[in-house]
Amino acid sequence: MIEKYGAILHKSWIAKGESYPGIIIGYWIEDNLQYEINVPEQLKDILIDIQNKLSRWWLTIEEQENRIKRMTKAFSEIFKDK
Prior knowledge:
- The chain is about 50% helix and about 15% strand.
- The protein is α+β, with helices and mostly antiparallel strands.
- It has one domain.
- It has a three-stranded antiparallel beta sheet.
């Protein structure tokens, strides 16, 4: 289920800079190229904060899923016929 959100959660967003009010920079999951999102300036910081918190959780879940896969593989090797 969470895979569908990977496109926006795989990496934190940043503000483009003070010269660009309301511009958020994100990164495409496929090639890590930048994209820009134009939002009302008043919402920029809170949207970045929310996305970055969700991103940290998503990355933690991804790490745990990978850890479980490695552990399952190692456990399976114990009972593998030699």
